[in-house]
Structures are given as structure tokens and as C-alpha cells.
Write the C-alpha cells for this entry.
Amino acid sequence: MANLTYIHSDEARKDWLIRPITYQMGNIGSEVSRSLKWNTKNQTRASKAIDRALELFDFTIEANLKNHARLTEILKAREEFCDYFFGNNSWRTDPAKMQKYYDQFAIMEQLHP
């Protein structure tokens, strides 16, 4: 099996796995926001933000493997993100609505850390 190289440190990954879902999805939302912001302005920055978002999605999936309902939601969000940036946007995703979805998690995390 090949060794994976993470963007985030192993310590950050371990910390991520014990964080609440609001923290995880809110922080994914930060990378989604950066991805959207740079998508038409600077492809290098956009690509880096997309990579970080995907890694955080993967960490979040790993952290929530035992919660079927939550896992389903995370996988759908990741699929929509990938379809928007890499596919043909068959979900017809509106960037503002996608950002609003993630903002709700950030707000919940601020209200109930």
C-alpha cells in the first residue's frame, strides 16, 4: 500500500477526527469559499484550496464512518463539490447557495463550540 502525503499535518488530522461535525463542515466551508473565490481569478490558488477541501472532506468521512446519516450527507456534499469543480455541474450548483450551506455550520460552531 502506498503512503499518503497529507497537506495537513498528522497531528492536525488526529485533532480533526475528534472535532464536532459543525467544526469539520464549517472549516471545509472555508476552503470551499476560497475555492469559489479564486476559481475565476487565480487557478493555482483555487487548485490549492480545492485540494485542501478534498482532504478535509476525506478526514471528515473517516471521522464519521459509524454515523450512516451523517456520512451520507458528507458524501453528497463532497460529490456536489467535485461535480461543480471537476464535472459538468450536473447538480446545477449555485455557488452562493453552496457557500450558504457551509456557512450554517460555521454559525452553529460559533454559537455552540
